[in-house]
């Protein structure tokens, strides 16, 4: 165990850190981010508290690193592959389509990481809340950008209020996640996709 | 302080119990229901732990009583006045319209009580989770019933899938609450109402 791990140079250290944070993020969706202490995580991963302190230094640093790791995984599974699609409407549909398996395949036991932590953090100002909200803002920004791109490309009516449409799409995805976690049934995910498909059909440019 | 408060007979005791549970419910939307212990609540209301034990007996009993109190307040503010309206479509619109001030007027500092506790409880089987989910099931049942009533009365197209429509209405309300708690701005509440009004207009029976 190094006193000062030079993380950038050590791929073993990087892998270990990544595995620890994956466990931390899974724990958070069940026990809450407020309960994520170095002591609790040490117990969960079977490491000594001093070993984890060498990685993270404080509870807040650990919480922030866990959010960052969840953000990176979300980008990898949901955002980045979607943004590679060639048109705005395809990128928008891919953001929706990639979210559903991210929820359904139990990446986290408590469903979407950010949908799980934001209701806990929303009334607790501080760096941890800011970090989770920065993720949410970035996510909503991606959806809005794809809507505006689709408007510019003529696949969504330019008369549509992009922020209103964003709200309705996000609403369906959030409820799908919440209901899936409770029921463990795919029905709400199907309902969300159906709602969004219908809404985007309504938002298509009207034939002149 | 009585050892065995005969609650049904003593209106002072009832009022005191109600006031304690109101504080408990407010605390829960900030600190989580897992953190609601008799010790923590005693601190918040300035009572002795033994005094609270006389009321509730255990942490779980306190959590269940808090959920019951939040349910009663929700019925009083949102559900009961809405269900008094004469037609299905009016009852449906009133359920939506009564929810918005319930959120916006800070009945709880963390927004809708049940939207706050369910993401915390969803992965924790037990009586407390069951009680919160029973509330949610009853709430969704009220919305679905008003939709089916409106279909029978000819104000919503009988060809509409009532459960799908329920999903879309609830989705808008849930996201409105979540975004209001974070932003403290009315915009998401307005967007939710706009989404629902538009969706109900689409769901109106088609002119033959």
Written overview of the protein:
Two copies of one chain form a homodimer. The first copy, chain A, has about 210 residues and is mostly helical. Chain A has a single domain (about 5-200), classed as Orthogonal Bundle (Tetracycline Repressor, domain 2), CATH 1.10.357. Chain A has helices at about 10-30, 40-45, 50-55, 60-85, 90-105, 115-120, 125-155, 160-185, 185-200. In chain A, helix 5 (about 90-105) packs across helix 7 and helix 8 (about 160-185) packs antiparallel against helix 9 (about 185-200). The longest helix of chain A has 27 residues, at about 125-155. The interface of A and B includes residues 119, 122, 133 and 191 of A.
Count every helix of chain A, treating DSSP H or I runs of 4 or more residues as helices.
9
Measure the end-to-end span of chain A. 70 Å
Helix % of chain A is over 70%
What is the subunit organization of this protein? homodimer
- The CATH architecture name of chain A reads Orthogonal Bundle
Look at the structure and give the CATH class of chain A.
Mainly Alpha
Strand element count of chain A: 0
Mean of all residue-level pLDDT scores of chain A? 92
CATH topology of chain A: Tetracycline Repressor, domain 2
Biggest sheet architecture of chain A = none
Based on Cα principal axes, name the global outline of chain A: elongated
Please indicate the count of domains of chain A. Answer: 1
Structural class, judged by helices and strands of chain A?
A: mainly alpha
Order of helices and strands of chain A: HHHHHHHHH
């Amino acid at each position: 165990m190094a006193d000062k791990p030079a993380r950038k140079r050590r791929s073993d250290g990087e892998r270990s850190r990544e595995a620890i944070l994956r466990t931390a993020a899974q724990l958070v969706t069940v026990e809450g981010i407020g309960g994520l202490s170095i002591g609790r995580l040490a117990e969960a991963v079977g490491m000594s508290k001093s070993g984890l302190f060498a990685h993270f230094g404080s509870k807040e640093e650990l919480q922030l690193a866990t959010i960052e790791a969840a953000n990176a995984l979300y980008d990898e599974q949901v955002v980045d592959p979607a943004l590679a699609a060639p048109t705005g409407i395809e990128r928008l549909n891919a953001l929706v389509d990639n979210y559903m398996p991210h929820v359904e395949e139990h990446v986290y036991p408590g469903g979407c990481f950010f949908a799980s932590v934001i209701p806990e953090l929303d009334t607790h100002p501080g760096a941890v809340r800011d970090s989770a909200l920065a993720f949410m803002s970035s996510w909503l920004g991606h959806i809005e950008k794809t809507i505006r791109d689709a408007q510019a490309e003529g696949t969504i009516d330019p008369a549509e209020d992009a922020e209103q449409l964003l709200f309705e799409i996000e609403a369906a995805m959030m409820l799908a996640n919440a209901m899936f976690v409770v029921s463990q049934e795919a029905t709400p995910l199907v309902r969300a996709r159906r709602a969004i498909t219908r809404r985007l059909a309504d938002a298509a440019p009207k034939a002149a």
